Amino acid sequence: MHRMQVTHHPISGRRPAGAEPGAGALPGSHGTAQAGTGAAQADAARTDAAGTGTADADVAGAVGEVLRRLLRPRVEEAASADPVFGRDVAEPVARFALHGGKRMRSQLLWWGMRACGGDAQAADAALHVAAGVELLQTCALLHDDVMDGAQVRRGRPAFHVAWHDARPGVRRAVPGPTFGDSAAILAGDLALAWADDTVATAPLRPDRAAAVRGLWQVLRTEMAAGQYVDLHSQATGCRSERTAVRTALLKSALYSVQRPLELGAALAGAGRAAADALSVAGRCAGLAFQLRDDLTDAFGDPARTGVPTDSDIRAGKPTYLVAVARRLAQRSGDRAALRVLDRRAGGAGLSPQAQAEVRQVLESIGARAAVEAQIAALTARALDHLGAPLAGLGPVARSRIGDLFTAATRAAGNAASRGPVADQAELDPVIAEVLSAAGHVTEKEDMR
């Protein structure tokens, strides 16, 4: 796979002033492609005999082109309401959405639809709903960066930072939140409104519209709930391992993996067995994805990830990784490790040396290895549910979903695995309990 060449097409005839993220003409779709351009792929998804063939080669590009087509009139509408709002808020939001990151959620939605045999009409609807998911993710990232006080996003200044620094004439001393924080909140609200509009106007089949819109409503609520539970746990100093897993499930597993797959299945009109198998697979892979994210935050290389590491450590977030470290330290009677972890719970003001001490404890106490084992076990179970339960349905699509699972849950820099993930560890009883409460069947022999 080769990275698709980036083309530049402005969404309006005006280049915005300032140095906000992505200033200038809006970029072309990002992603990987084997052939063709994003525009051709998006058109082909609606016109080729299979209704899906060309978009299969570059899902991210096809979704990006749908986004570009949908966002152009929305940015113009915002500029008509107020030119400064259009320039300062709407255009940067559109550019951010079009940069798009990896578009993992869109790809999972698409391949969930393809695995369940979606036709040309389902494919067209899938591209539109996927565009809505990308706009919802834009909202989530803009708001998350404000709540976390993040300075960098995708290797560039976070929106609230760039807005505050780039606006000529903005007074530095203003009451309440900074100008950048307030602008980023409004930008996230705008992205959420665009996301809802995109899904509301998607060309859904009447017999599938209720299921798709019901899942969309659940997805939005779970996204907000996950963010709040994360915020609440941090504010209260919660040390519950179960709460840490539940937070990871709400904040990432459901929103990022399970629900996109379920949306794809609903768009295709999937039967109950196939939809349930995708749901369980997505839940397991999604939790593994969040656990990998926790490890990457603690031990990752910023040059690879595009964001600073140690943000969870500095903020004192009660992640599953830290909860496991505390359990292992208590079990072994390692008081020195507990003191380091207790000091870290204070969050703000940790020196680089103190952050390094926390990382050393996470490593030496065995927490990092324990979380790696859970990632492997969860990924193995996710791949198992793509096997027998979905036999006879879209083998290529199932393989693509498996590849996305593996890519999302492996450590950065590791070569992609071409075979099944080794199931070398039992699930942590706490993880098994939370998954079971969410409707997961942990025993392989119970999978139908």
UniProtKB/TrEMBL annotation:
Its cofactor is Mg(2+). This is (2E,6E)-farnesyl diphosphate synthase. It is an enzyme of class 2 (transferase). It comes from the Bacteria. One of its GO terms (molecular function) is dimethylallyltranstransferase activity. Its EC number is 2.5.1.1, 2.5.1.10. The keyword Nucleotidyltransferase does not apply. The lineage of its organism: Bacteria, Bacillati, Actinomycetota, Actinomycetes, Kitasatosporales. Residues 16-54 have a biased composition (Low complexity). It comes from Actinacidiphila bryophytorum. Belongs to the FPP/GGPP synthase family.
